[in-house]
Amino acid sequence: MEFDFKFTSDGLIPVIVQEASGKERPSGRVLMFAWMNSESLANTLKTGLMTFWSRSRQKLWLKGETSGHTQRVVRWFVDCDRDVLLFEVEQTTGACHTGYESCFFQELDRNALPLEIKESKLFDDKSVYDKKP
Asked: Domain range holding 52?
């Protein structure tokens, strides 16, 4: 599949993942930010489930492959410069590996100090990700 997007020199494109709002224009909560390459984008479009490129592990990863907390694509957009993608998804449980609905749960004050977290975790991240054989 050929894509007419502006990928970085590393072959990646930034992706914003937002909860589907059901409205004509995107308005849901931002759940996470990640990167895609052409292969992960093609896989996402083929399966309807969000697949990303892990820069730290240097491999594809299906969102929810360990936790079961998948993201089903509802619709997607490209920005005016064609260098950022926005996906609206239906999220199963929480998007953040720390157990929260969104990776953007930590509010900061104007001095960059963390404020009290105002939401509860949706799942216990230790029991999901620290499984020992």
From this structure: 13-129
Residue 61 in any domain: the answer is: yes
- Give the residue among 122, 55, 72, 98 at the shortest CA–CA distance from 63: 72
The string of pLDDT tens digits covering residues 68-126 is 999 999 999 999 999 999 999 999 999 999 999 999 999 999 999 999 999 999 999 98
3 found inside a domain: no
In total, how many domains does the chain have?
Answer: 1
Answer yes or no: is 70 within a domain. Answer: yes
Q: Residue 102 is encoded by which pair of tokens? A: 């969104």
Rounded to two decimals, the pTM is: 0.91
Per DSSP (E only), the strands in 1-133 are: 13-19, 30-36, 51-54, 59-62, 71-78, 85-91
CA-wise closest residue to 68 among 54, 86, 49, 44? 49
Residue 63 lies in a domain: yes
36-55 exposure pattern, b = at least 16 Cβ within 10 A, e = fewer: bbbebbebbeeeebbbbbee
